[in-house]
Design goal:
The structure holds 2 protein chains of 2 kinds. Chain A is mainly α. Chain A is 73% helix and 0% strand. In chain A, helix 6 crosses helix 9 and helix 11 packs antiparallel against helix 14. Chain B is built from 13 helices and no strands. The two termini of chain B are 46 Å apart. The chains are: A mainly alpha, B mainly alpha.
Chain lengths: 318, 327
């Protein structure tokens, strides 16, 4: 078991290197010299050369052969990888702050929105899915499924705008924009739940219905267990594995923040930070959020596999 | 004779066994919801073709198309007979804008699939069929891509691609016909979206390469290419269609978000840019612009979602469970 955990955690390393390569490829190779994006459309070549030199974009991409063999690793990718490993994300072009500091400041507000959103969505999603599975193939089940598909077909943007316009602006129930007290969180969380719960419900319902048709359910029914016992004691427990996967995998996204919600409701979290950075061509910030998001995802993915062994004694890992 | 016997009789009487598509079509025909959705999809497809006609006529003539001409004297008008959904900030007819938005939505679906399907299918087929080191490499590649949070990767690729496309002189002939933002969005969603298809196709090829018909083909001297594409491909191609119809609604909703955030479509009336414009008018009590765009998106996405589900159930019922379990 311990050997498995160690091996699973070690497998994070190659994926992390891959993630570094892919983000590097997107930002420095596909995008070309970032100095063009920083300097804007009407920049002089001299200005671009200056920015490139200051930020090291004029160095070779992977290996430096100019002064072989002394400065082989004086190239962009090894530099970047080394900095990332030390959690040094560089300096923002716009605010001149350290990116690390900006990220630390953004985590709190992001979690304030995403944690309640996540918990409420999970409880509502699983609860409604149990309801739908219990009353499967009745109008309750069909109504719930139809409602969730309909809910999924409306753009999140529309939910946000309607909530801001009617609930906040016309009826003045909540503040429209900002991050000052808990009252400011109600609207974004509510909108997030409404926009997201449909997908959750559909997912959990499929998982539970799949368990419903397993043979052990037939056995339980044959020995006289009530449908409620079957649902809560047998089906829910077995459905726990896919539910657990879904939950753990969603945790890294708490960090990334609810991108849209933060932007619309003026919450100074990481999602807002990322989008502002995209607008301002602040490469290093976008790079940092993308990178950290991926690393968390990879780590939690490994955790899911480990959690399996705990949730399901049938799974034995070598 | 009971109905079951009659059906049995019909089946045994038919000369050739019915194929997957005939059976699936018969099942879909019985599904009333799927048929209504198919009708809605046909209406949207018609709209799309019409909008392409308008767009390309103007392009070929070198004139400015109707939907881009401003009439400042009638800006922000309420719905009327001449303009069923009113006019926007530049006095353009909102209904016309929505029709062009349909074109953008379909173009995104198509262009993205031009990247997703060849890439996902080829890599999936190679990985599943050959296995070994190649499989390991491809699995590693898609694990890495899947590790970057979707929306972040899409946004990054889109934003970087758009800047690169707009700067490059070689791309100017392309961007004369296709909006640079549209191209960038498709590249962004294409190079992230292939993972799902690749996984499914790899799994299928892994299964199929052990089947007897593949062994028979090999015994007859078929080479790898022929086995992969002539023999196995027809048996898994329905998965491409299912994958497409389930992925399309997501593409439409992502476009709306990207265009809204300003990293998507710039110079064409897409549903995202329409919603973006409508937002400002909403505060003036001008709700029909937003309502129109919402309804246009709603029916297409709803029809695609429901039809995609029905199609999947008709073509491959096992897939629903597999998909739910892997997320």
């Amino acid at each position: 078991m311990a050997a498995y955990i160690i091996r699973r955690l070690l497998s994070v390393v190659p994926i992390t290197i891959g993630v570094m390569l892919i983000t590097f490829f997107v930002f420095r190779v596909v995008g070309g010299n970032p100095a063009y994006r920083i300097a804007g459309k009407n920049a002089t070549p001299a200005r671009i050369a200056q920015i490139s030199h200051e930020r090291g974009y004029d160095k070779p991409l992977f290996v430096n052969f100019h002064e072989f063999p002394r400065y082989v690793f004086e190239a962009q990718f090894p530099r970047l990888a080394w900095n990332l490993v030390r959690f040094d994300f560089g300096q923002s072009i716009v605010t001149k702050e350290r990116v690390g500091t900006m990220l630390r400041q953004g985590v709190g507000p992001s979690l304030c929105v995403t944690t309640p959103l996540f918990v409420i969505e999970l409880v509502l999603g699983v609860g409604l899915a149990l309801l739908a599975a219990y009353y499967r193939n009745t109008w309750i089940d069909r109504g719930l499924v139809l409602l969730s598909v309909m809910g999924m077909s409306i753009s999140t943007l529309v939910y946000i705008m309607l909530a801001q316009y009617w609930l906040a602006s016309v009826w003045r129930l909540f503040p429209v924009w900002g991050f000052e007290s808990a009252r400011y969180l109600i609207l974004p969380v509510m909108v997030g739940v409404i926009a997201g719960v449909g997908g959750e419900l559909r997912f959990y319902r499929t998982v539970m219905l799949d368990e419903m048709y397993q043979e052990y359910v037939r056995t339980a029914r044959a020995k006289g267990a009530s449908s409620r016992t079957i649902l809560f004691r047998h089906v829910l427990r077995n459905a726990l594995i896919p539910i657990l996967t879904n939950v753990i995998i969603a945790i890294p996204f708490l960090y990334t923040g609810a991108l849209l919600l933060e932007n619309f409701f003026g919450i100074p979290g990481l999602g807002r930070l990322t989008v502002m950075a995209l607008f301002n061509f602040d490469d290093d910030v976008v790079f940092a959020t993308t990178f950290i998001g991926s690393i968390l995802f990879v780590l939690f993915n490994a955790l899911t596999d480990i959690a399996y062994t705990w949730a399901d004694p049938r799974i034995r890992l070598k | 004779m009971t109905t079951a016997e009659k059906e049995l009789d019909v089946i045994s009487a038919s000369a050739a066994p019915e194929g997957l598509w005939t059976l699936a079509w018969r099942q879909l025909r019985r599904n009333r919801v799927a048929m209504i959705c198919l009708f809605i999809l046909c209406v949207y497809t018609g709209t799309w073709i019409y909008a392409e006609g308008v767009y390309w006529t103007a392009k070929i003539r070198g004139s400015v198309p109707d939907y881009k001409i401003s009439h400042y004297e009638i800006r922000n008008e309420a719905p009327s007979l001449a303009h069923p959904l009113g006019t926007n900030f530049a006095g353009r007819d909102n209904f016309n804008q929505l029709i062009q938005g349909t074109r953008i939505a379909f173009e995104i679906g198509l262009l993205t699939s031009l990247i997703v399907i060849p890439l996902g299918f080829a890599l999936g087929a190679l990985a599943g069929y050959f296995g070994g080191k190649l499989d390991g490499a491809i699995v590693y590649l898609y694990s890495v891509v899947a590790s970057v949070p979707d929306i972040l990767l899409i946004m990054s690729i889109t934003y970087v691609t758009r800047a690169a496309v707009e700067r490059s002189p070689a791309m100017q002939t392309v961007t004369r016909y296709i909006d640079s933002g549209l191209l960038a969005i498709c590249v962004g969603m294409g190079f992230t979206g292939w993972v799902g298809l690749c996984r499914i196709i790899r799994g299928e090829y892994l299964k199929h390469r052990e089947r007897q018909y593949v062994l028979a083909a090999r015994a007859l001297g078929a080479n790898h290419g022929a086995i992969m594409f002539r023999h196995i491909m027809p048996n898994v191609s329905h998965l491409v269609i299912i994958n497409f119809s389930l992925r399309f609604p997501g593409l439409i909703l992502t476009e709306v978000v990207l265009s809204y955030l300003g990293i998507g479509i710039a110079n064409e009336p897409s549903w995202g840019t329409i919603i973006n414009d409508a937002k400002q008018r909403l505060w003036l009590g001008n709700w029909w612009e937003l309502a129109g765009a919402t309804v246009a998106i709603f029916f297409l996405v709803l029809a695609l979602n429901l039809f995609g589900d029905a199609l999947r159930d008709a073509l491959d019922p096992k897939l629903r469970i597999a998909e739910a379990k892997t997320g």
